[in-house]
Write a structure and sequence with these properties.
Pyruvoyl-Dependent Histidine Decarboxylase, Chain B; alpha+beta; 4 helices; five-stranded mixed sheet
Length: 190
């Protein structure tokens, strides 16, 4: 969607897809490029944006989303990435999402990257972070010290949060010390 503010074009994405990838190479940048290729987003000029999930934004598949884009398109995304050259070091990167029940309201995306965490832990943390940010804007009362699973039930029982989800990529650093890169992204389509 395109609208103007003081004669400046503003864009609000109408669709989003979630993707992830891992790359391994002797060069750090090439490792990142290979992770982008696995995620099927290497053809786009990626612009990192902050963590607002636009109102009325529809989630589509990677195939649908990349099919709506052309090579070279300037493409907005929220990305989490991590890399290492340390053999056998566990790395992970995740994007969390929390969508309000009212489609006309905005939601939250979060990014989290970690060393030494499993994909499950990193993914849950990212999902928890997005849900907590949304819950605070919706006025949902909760105890931050409770476990994510307990707070998740409180958030959903409030009737104000429609869904939460996450996507995570993890890997173990290459045994020969090559660069290993992981990424997870929410890619917007205007």
């Amino acid at each position: 969607m395109l609208h103007t503010y003081k004669n400046v074009a503003m864009v609000v994405p109408t669709k989003v897809f979630f993707t992830k990838g891992v790359g391994i190479h002797k060069d750090r940048l090439a490792s990142f490029e290979l992770a982008l290729r696995k995620a099927k987003i290497e053809k786009f000029n990626l612009v990192y944006v902050s963590s607002i999930f636009p109102p009325n934004c529809k989630i589509v598949t990677v195939e649908e989303g990349t099919g709506m884009l052309e090579p070279g398109d300037i493409t907005y995304c929220v990305m989490a990435k991590n890399d290492t050259r340390e053999p056998n070091r566990r790395i992970s990167a995740a994007i969390g999402l929390a969508v309000p029940k009212e489609a006309k309201e905005y939601g939250y995306l979060s990014e989290h990257h970690a060393y030494g965490e499993t994909a499950e832990i990193t993914g849950e943390y990212a999902e928890d972070l997005a849900a907590t940010m949304l819950a605070t804007t919706l006025g949902i009362e909760f105890d931050i010290n409770k476990a994510w699973q307990e707070r998740e039930q409180i958030y959903k029982a409030s009737g104000k949060i429609f869904k939460t989800q996450q996507i995570c990529q993890s890997a173990t650093g290459d045994k020969k010390g090559l660069w290993t890169t992981v990424l997870a992204a929410a890619v917007f389509i205007v």
